[in-house]
Amino acid sequence: MATIQFKRRTTAGTGPFTGTSGVIKAGEPQVDFNGGNLYISKADKTASSGTPISQSDYMEIPSTSVVDNRIDNKISALGLGTASTKNTGTGSGQIPVLDSSGKLPSSVVPNAVSSVNGKTGAVTISLTDLSGVSTSTFNSHTASSSHLTTEQITKLSNVQNTSISNNNGSYYEANLTTFNSKTITNGLVLYSVLDTKYSPNAKIYSLGIDSSKVLTPSSIIDGGTF
Q1: For the residues of 67-91, what is the DSSP string, one character each?
Q2: How many Cα atoms are found within 13 Å in the side-chain-facing hemisphere of 141?
Q3: pTM of the model
């Protein structure tokens, strides 16, 4: 009569039958009610202190709950987000992928424009294409003041371009330290006033020489004592 060997684990602990004593038969099933898995012995084996029976001697068939838990742990360990549970595609709840040209399908992101003023491809637009004035007329317009308001024209007419340049009686010093050593300290006196009758307002400067820094007909040159 054939003998059917079948072990079940009802004591504390999980996993198949292991240890340094006991015998297992090839194809022998073992049910772990505590851990929820099924184990099948790979070959006949008699345990000893030198060759103990271990979990590697079995094929493991995990239960549904164990599989679900292992999948959840693996997803968490890999740092996968909710996108890992979505299918690719262009429907609701799906993740679109780039096409062969490296773009999203037009069903996901439609073209912004298909043509510009009736033109397609690499479009170049001129004023004439936009039913505007000719380029020469536009350039003439921008070069004149016809597009400015009266107030703008008045303000611009009051703007003056002022500059200071050297001539035969002066020269430019490129080094600031040298410049400071060659000039009279506090030799010039400045006065400024804001003239509000202009639009925009004009700031007017008055420039003079400090009389105490120069010689005049009434100046006294004192040679000092010795």
Answers
A1: HHHHHHHHHHHHT--GGGGS-BSSS
A2: 9
A3: 0.36
